[in-house]
Write a structure and sequence with these properties.
Layout: E1 4-10, H1 13-29, E2 33-39, H2 41-45, E3 49-53, H3 62-67, H4 69-86, E4 90-94, H5 97-109, E5 114-117, H6 129-136, E6 139-142, H7 147-152, E7 159-160, H8 165-174, E8 187-191, H9 196-210, E9 217-222, H10 228-232, E10 240-243, H11 246-250, E11 253-259, H12 262-269, E12 274-278, H13 282-291, H14 299-304, E13 310-313, H15 319-328, H16 334-350, H17 355-367
Parallel strand pairs: 1-2, 1-4, 2-3, 4-5, 5-6, 6-7, 8-9, 8-11, 9-10, 11-12, 12-13
Helix pairs in contact: 1-17, 4-5, 5-6, 9-15
Length: 374
């Protein structure tokens, strides 16, 4: 395996995180792989050449996608051109299904092996995508335990090797500074998301709700893809903004308001009782309600297959409801203890650490049999 090139496409902040961990593990196994593609700061730090940054890519909701369709089409064209120019031995696509499944179809026609890391959530909607996955994807890796059984119903073989967040959080907790408490009061964490649209919709509501908890230090987990001036239009000097250090916030938090997505699982793995918030444009929500067929929107509830944490969705995502639900999960409340007990069960379901390494080993053994892995 000499001077092998792998092209990676990650379109979101979570994909940048998981992609960086995968690159790190592959680099530890063999020194002869060069990474190039689309990602973010974390992947770049692990040595990948970034051709397009995730901060320019992610659009949330059906309406937002339609409004930005010309940009998306241009991005697909650019990505194909860059793959051709790079001549990679394989393509690793990380989540980002609306975009990546189109790239997978094209790559299949060009005889480029397609490795899909982090399955699209086809169990939630667009189940028909299973046909494209079966046709275009050489190997699919899932990170949620129930996904393997879902694919089995369609006779599609996929691999579940654990959830990479376990590695990331375990590694964080090993660091000396992880136990350093820099806040003088209990922390109410606000995790409004990483996309501009979702932050604009939810952060003002979260801030207003936090005013009913003056005995807490309110800390906003800010995305490094958005600047401080953007956040400050919704906050005052009593609220602390922390950029790109969500784990340090969660490690010291007592309660949290969290946007649905990967952050709900991260919050659970830090054992912080949370209230999950979701609010999109009325049109996007109306379309989603027609198409999406799942009982829950948070990963915590989906994996546990029951309501462990309260979900405030669309019309229910109000300041009043945020306040009442936060009060139910404060210290010494029965609901708080119930949530923490379920978090322990969730950790067991996710399995053991080492997912990123196991995926790296499997990729090298499956696609690069002469890689000389350790």
């Amino acid at each position: 395996m000499q001077n092998t090139k792998i092209f990676i496409v990650a379109g979101e902040v979570s994909g940048d995180l998981h992609g960086a961990n995968l690159i790190k593990e592959i680099n530890a196994l063999t020194p002869n792989v060069a990474f190039i593609g689309w990602g973010g700061n974390r992947m770049e730090k692990e040595g990948m050449t970034i051709l397009k940054h995730v901060k320019t890519l992610s659009f949330m909701g059906f309406l937002e996608v339609l409004l930005n369709i010309k940009t998306i089409i241009r991005n697909i064209k650019d990505c194909k051109s860059q793959i051709i120019a790079s001549q990679p031995a394989a393509l690793i696509l990380i989540d980002f299904p609306g975009f990546n499944l189109r790239i997978a179809k094209w790559a299949k026609k060009h005889n480029i092996p397609v490795i899909y890391y982090i399955s699209p959530q086809i169990w939630a909607w667009k189940e028909s995508r299973i046909k494209a996955i079966r046709r275009d994807v050489s190997k699919m890796y899932c990170i949620l335990p129930f996904e393997q059984q879902f694919y089995a119903k369609f006779n599609v073989e996929v691999s579940y090797l654990g959830h990479p967040l376990l590695d990331e959080i375990t590694e964080y907790k090993r660091r000396e500074f992880s136990n350093k408490n820099v806040f003088s009061k209990p922390v109410l964490a606000l995790l409004p998301g990483s996309r501009l649209q979702e932050v604009k919709r939810k952060l003002p509501l979260m801030i207003e709700a936090s005013k009913s908890f003056p005995h807490y230090q309110v800390v906003v987990a800010c995305s490094i893809n958005l600047d401080e001036a953007f956040y400050r239009q919704y906050t005052d000097d009593t609220i602390q903004l922390v950029f790109g250090d969500t784990y340090n916030i969660l490690n010291q938090s007592t309660i949290a308001l969290v946007t649905s997505g990967t952050a709900t699982l991260e919050t659970a793995l830090f054992h912080v009782p949370q209230v999950v918030c979701y609010k999109s444009s009325p049109l996007s929500f109306a379309i989603a309600k027609l198409l999406v067929k799942i009982k829950y929107i948070s990963l915590v509830n989906l994996i546990m297959n029951k309501e462990v944490v309260t979900e405030l969705i669309q019309a229910n995502c109000t300041v009043k409801n945020m306040i009442s639900q936060l009060r139910l999960i404060e210290l010494n409340q029965p609901k708080r203890l119930e949530i923490l007990d379920n978090y322990q069960k969730l950790s067991v379901l996710l399995g053991e650490n080492g997912a990123s390494k196991r995926v790296a080993v499997d990729i090298l053994e499956t696609f690069f049999t002469n890689s000389g892995t350790k």
